[in-house]
What we know:
Number of strands: 7
Low-confidence stretches: none
Strand order of the largest sheet: 3-2-1-4-5-6-7
CATH superfamily: NAD(P)-binding Rossmann-like Domain
Radius of gyration: 17 Å
Distance between the termini: 33 Å
Helix content: 40-55%
Oligomer: single chain
Strand content: 15-25%
Amino acid sequence: MTNRVALVTGGNGGIGTEVCKYLSALGYTVVSTCVNADKEDILGWQEELQAEGHQVNWVECDVSDFNACGAMAEKVEGEYGPVDVLVNLAGITRDAFIHKMEKDAWDAVINVNLTSAFNVTRNLIDNMRSRGFGRIINISSVNGQTGQFGQTNYSAAKAGLHGFTMALAKEGARKGITANTVSPGYINTSMTAAIPDEVKEQILAQVPAGRMGRPDEIARVVAFLAADESEYINGANIPVNGALFTSF
């Protein structure tokens, strides 16, 4: 068990909920960000987790806003203590072929899926460096490795996340800070539930495992990377995709 504080951005989504539950079960004090507590029914979400034995806290923050992230970091560390584990998970999609994509769709995805990782990390990294400990886990995607039709914005953001990870790992290693990426394949969440059935069947036909992944299968990897004992794993990209995409 641990008494460390973990901040999970966008933790009330499908994968995020399992990450929060997994870390809570291990003894972390877990805080999730949300954008609008009322619209996202964050209190209902929190109550559901409490009913399952998980105490998960929350804070409102638009993670695409640098100054808002600064205020959020100050609030979280003031109320719960130093953030030792950061899971950059917040993400959205605005899919369209590039010849039809509006600039707003590009900007929104880059800002929420990539720039947010800088915004939150930048506002927490100094304290991690001064304490000599930090675990930063960035949630990318198989589509950041392979590309995907209609997702130039999403694929670019998710590929950029691992570039961010690799540089951050080199900068933080001597300060006891690790940075790693987890790249899920197609996972059973509300996002993939919106995929038309015929498209879903085409996707599953390409997955050697023959099924979509479960959110808890991502959460287990996040928890492994968050552990104190994972100090020598740094700058890695761990795919969790049922062998959909394999590489060195």
